[in-house]
Amino acid sequence: MKFDITSELTYEVFSPTTFIFNIQAAKSATQIIIKESICINPVLNFKEFRFNNVDNRFIQLEVRQDTLFTISYHAQVDVESKVIDENTLSQSIPIIELDKQVLPYLFPSRHCQSDKLRKLATKEFGHLPNEYSKALAVNDWIFNNIDYITGTTDSGTSAYDSLIQREGVCKDFAHLGIAFCRALDIPARYLTAYAYNLNPPDFHACFEAYIGRQWIIFDPTKLVALNGLVKIGNGKDATEAAVASFFGHTNCTYMNVQCNATESEFLPFIPSTYKMEALSFL
After folding, report:
1. N or C: which end of the chain has fewer CB within 10 A?
2. In the 8-state DSSP scheme, what is residue 224?
3. Phi, psi (degrees; rounded to nearest 5) at 72
4. pLDDT per residue over 13-62, tens digit each?
């Protein structure tokens, strides 16, 4: 499936500020960038970089005080996806046999305090027969028990906060899903993406659980078709995959995010047995 994706962000800068953006679609064998462009107005020098073993593509730039600038990204992306038979996900993989690149996603992180949720996770989901059924139950529990309300959380809100407050947005739903999975000894990671037919249009966050030696997508918000995602990046939580980070004094005054399918076929809603190979490090 081919998608046209666009993001446009405008910032008013009040002091010398360093920006790090993570808005470019990830490149992989199953997510092909057909064409893309980055435009910064007024023209500012920037550089692109990656961290080791991470698909995320970062843009870094320095901006002077009293500057109003807009960064725009456009790409056409071809995403290959496939549905996984849940019967193939029933076998548990011992932790000692996990790839070393997966192990970091077992541990608590700043926004996903899985150590605080272990007792609740075990009580609610520990009786289920395998990792897939546990992760699916986590996904459904969050959807049924946490209210999706915009403007109720901020960048400092954690999974534990969302559990207590019982409200949040997509990043908070993802953080809680990650924390529950890790509390159940299931590796889980944060995912940012462009999302087809998301209303209102925005960047989207969900989570992946490592089950049956592959990363399986779960979206506790259930707002989008899982085969309508174009991956931007992964991380332990939002601190490693934020679409925009800055060091200085600034304010975002405008944001426009679009993800449109360029082919005419209808995108059905795919259940949580869905895996998109483009979202895997494997």
Report:
1. C
2. S
3. -125, 135
4. 999 999 999 999 999 888 999 999 999 999 999 999 987 656 789 999 99
